[in-house]
Design brief:
Shape: globular
Number of strands: 15
Number of domains: 2
Structural class: alpha/beta
Oligomer: single chain
Largest sheet: 8 strands, parallel
Radius of gyration: 18 Å
Distance between the termini: 13 Å
Strand content: 15-25%
Number of helices: 11
Length: 306
């Protein structure tokens, strides 16, 4: 029996964003098809400690992730992902912070590829923390960017991320801002990756046609999007049970009557349905589900436990 342990650097060297997007896309389709046993995650201390698990029935494989979240430290997310199967003794463990940012970015990539206009090439990213860079990398993978605007709480934070990404986005104009409302006005795609507890911008600040990804808020006490945006958009979510328990935006909009539960479409279902018609606003709201971590862990297991 052996256990392979991978650092964050080793995880990033082993898999590309394109590979992770493709794996997470297949995972969402499998989730919609009933391939997974996936309980809603355990959240302790209002989401500061999380435990997530998923069992993939066809391969008899399972993933368990334990992590802690503290936005006042760097990195904010630390923990361990563990992969195992019933047919072998070997295990794989990997850095949970890296797996989490990769799989969260990949879900955004899957949703953006489905919902954003084919020629969308202007992204506004709100948030310059640990999740931010992989949001950009994922969007750029499916919609090569001509312009990126990074909105940070300070100009220094926004510029620091811009400097990090500049070498990876050759040919992309990168701007920085501290004002979300003005920064989204010309966007084709918006990514929200913040721990906000109230909406980041009014719906009126957005163009008539835009795709918005919201991945920062993962507890009922957190919100990045306003009710009227959700009411006026096609809303796609990662998984209904998790969203109804954890998404502050959706919970608030449902209670306010801005949305009905029937207005929500799971991403796996959307991927296997008729193509979406472009020309209006679309929203992808994700709180993150364990299947995404399983998808990354399986990629790693296929490379290191073969």
């Amino acid at each position: 029996m052996k256990t392979i342990s991978l650092s964050g650097r080793e995880v990033r060297e082993a898999v590309s964003m394109r590979e992770v997007i493709d794996a997470v896309r297949r995972g969402f389709v499998g989730l919609a098809g009933g391939d997974f046993e996936m309980p809603t995650r355990t959240a302790l201390r209002d989401g500061r400690f999380l435990v997530m698990s998923a069992h993939h029935r066809p391969t008899q494989s399972a993933m368990v992730k334990t992590l802690s979240v503290n936005f006042e430290r760097v990195p904010a997310i630390t923990g361990t992902v563990t992969w195992s199967t019933l047919d072998r003794l070997d295990h794989l463990t990997a850095d949970a912070g890296t797996v989490t940012t990769l799989r969260t970015g990949a879900a955004t990539g899957v949703a953006t590829d489905l919902l954003a206009a084919p020629d969308a090439d202007r992204l506004t990213l709100i948030g310059a923390g640990g999740q931010a860079a992989d949001q950009v990398r994922a969007v750029h993978t499916v919609r090569p960017l001509r312009r990126l605007t990074i909105v940070g709480t300070t100009e220094v934070r926004a510029r620091s991320l811009a400097n990090t990404l500049q070498a990876e986005l050759e040919g992309t104009e990168i701007r920085t801002s501290t004002d979300p409302a003005s920064a989204v006005g010309e966007a084709h795609i918006v990514c929200c990756a913040t721990p906000a507890t109230s909406p980041l911008f009014p719906a009126s600040a957005l163009p008539a046609e835009v795709h918005v990804n919201a991945i920062g808020a993962f507890r009922p006490t957190m919100r990045e999007l306003p009710d009227d945006l959700l009411a006026d958009s096609t809303v796609v979510i990662d998984e209904l049970g998790a969203i109804l328990e954890e998404s502050g935006e959706i919970i608030h909009a449902l209670r306010a009557g801005a949305l009905a539960q029937d207005d929500l479409t799971e991403l796996g279902t959307a991927l296997t349905s008729a193509p979406f018609a472009h020309g209006r606003r679309t929203v992808f709201k994700s709180v993150g589900v364990a299947m995404q971590d399983w998808a990354v862990a399986r990629l790693l297991a296929d490379k290191f436990l073969c």
